[in-house]
Amino acid sequence: MMENKYIRADLLMNKIAESAFFSAAEKGKIRAAIENEPGEDVKPVVHAHWVYGYTFPDGQYRKCSACNELIKAVANDGNFCGHCGAKMDEEEDDEE
Predict the structure, then answer these.
(1) Can you give the pTM of this predicted structure?
(2) For position 96, what pLDDT does the model report?
């Protein structure tokens, strides 16, 4: 069984429309099938990284590079921003 894969339906329909493999009637049926398929409730993944070096009297903090929110650093909390949900898999910028 194929694993779920979310794609851009508009780009797929453009590729099918440009294809010489399908007849005009087949392209119309494929387009209708794609348009009639219910959509999923998904959102784009925001990739970010932690910016370290914020020390306050109550502890260490780090800032999300996506939303710039300061988050108190605690053990093993690091794969997602607790404020905006950004995925912390981006390479750090040397500029910061």
Answers:
(1) 0.58
(2) 46
